[in-house]
Write a structure and sequence with these properties.
CATH superfamily of the largest domain: FAD-linked oxidases, C-terminal domain
Largest sheet: 6 strands, antiparallel
Strand content: 15-25%
Distance between the termini: 46 Å
Shape: globular
CATH topology of the largest domain: Vanillyl-alcohol Oxidase, Chain A, domain 3
Radius of gyration: 23 Å
CATH architecture of the largest domain: 3-Layer(aba) Sandwich
Helix content: 25-40%
Number of strands: 17
CATH class of the largest domain: Alpha Beta
Bound molecules: flavin-adenine dinucleotide
Amino acid sequence: SHVLHAYFLVPFIIHSLVFMTLMSSRPLPNTPNEITENNLCTDTICMKTASSDYGKLVQELPFGVLRPSSVSDIARLVKSSYNSSSPFTIAARGNGHSVRGQAMAKDGVVIEMSSLKDIGIRVSGNSSLGFYADVGGEQLWIDVLRATLQHGLAPVSWTDYLYLTVGGTLSNAGISGQSSFHGPQISNVLEMDVITGKGELITCSENTNSDLFYAVLGGLGQFGIITRARIVLDKAPTRVKWFQIIYDDFAKFTKDQEYLISIDHGFDYVEGSLIMENTPASNFFTPDDESMINSLASKKGILYSLEAVKYYNDEIINTIDEELQVIFKALNFKSEFIFSKDATFFDFLNRVRAEELLLQSLALWDVPHPWLNLFIPRSRIADFNQGVFVDIIQKQSLSSGPFLVYPINRKKWDDRMSVVIPEDDDDMFYTAALLNAAGPAVDPAVIEEQNKKILEYCNKAGIKIKQYFPHYTRKLGWMKHFGNKWSAFKERKEQFDPKLILSPGQRIFNSD
Ligand code: FAD
């Protein structure tokens, strides 16, 4: 175990050494007076946080860190760069849960959004016009949940994990098992305050400054810094019925998933995941069920677990089970392969936190995360299963995920938003989240190699995937990614951030 322990420490030692070397051998950055006038933090803690993220794959030192106490501090910083003869780059850092340096700004300024306090979370509205919350872009979704539940309300669209900021997820899309029914989080925003790359604070919505509104949603931080978002709320349920249904046949699994997202009044959340011999234990199953599932997985090689959740409250407590039976009748699974749990709405939404705390206690959370997230045309999902899940992931058995796969309804994804999804006109597409962690037994380079193979396979097989949390190092890659949206994306950049100041860590306009 000493060897294991030492092995474990190696990445951290290397990380710290690289950091110290970076700090001591920094070239003198191009520092116009404007950058130094902004009262930046350059101490080790500020710099270390700003130059790292959840992925632990990229490390880039900024010139300094701004800890704004108000929205106007941010506007002033952006304006000073915009008006400078040599503008410096600026990245808003939400909770730094990107995996490839997207919230970093080499030799520029990172804004530590968490120090903002002026907006907070304010619930308004009424039952006839609807409820909403005005929340600061720096707020964590877990805090939005806690605050809105006090009013018996909650946002309708979520991510699996809630320790992410509103500004960070709205810059991507924000997806989870609710996305099929309510759209992604970016489809549930009524209005935003945004500081553009010119340092102007602009309120935007579907009807006012709508160009900026749609640019920012899924805009990878390229057009402005979100300081306030008005989020749609609905009456919150109190409890959930939570199911995992195990399939050994991918076609039956996806057919049932697609059915469940196409009916009204069915489940409120539908996802799915892979179970293989080396899949880490889940706290959903009892130890007995777990060992039965594992032995089946080792026999079959790969199993698929459909995860579905139905919300309820006291009003329907007597009819909920009957309702569920009607839905289950239309599905195609064996009765011994359905597992259930009853949980509070809060515990269900906050489910990944328990896993995080467990992994943290095992020192397995702060490790490199070479993640690959893809959107896949529905018409090719069976090929993707064979070519990627079976032939690459299962057969090579290099990594243990978790691997998520589920369909999403397209209808609530507004094409005016910057986010990119498959370009076909099918009313559904799939998401596959390959959430590998490196650690004592797995070198991140091995997973990166596997990711490369997966992308190459899709390319060769003509599966027109789109990356979610896209990462490209060449302009050509970005142009292909945006496809028919590239020219609009570029025009919006010229309009809202003409000096290419914002979120340089995405490497879109500063790649070759
Ligand atoms: P950061 O990493 O800090 O920033 C991301 C990007 O947004 C950067 O380019 C940054 O400059 C920009 N940005 C940050 N704040 C603002 C702002 N206020 N205005 C404008 N731009 C801003 N995503 C999902 O969709 N569904 C999931 O279920 C899901 N689960 C996850 C689980 C885990 C454990 C992790 C680590 C990530 C998960 N994600 C999920 C991904 C997550 O949504 C993105 O990584 C998101 O960007 C993280 O938010 P953040 O606040 O940490 O953003």
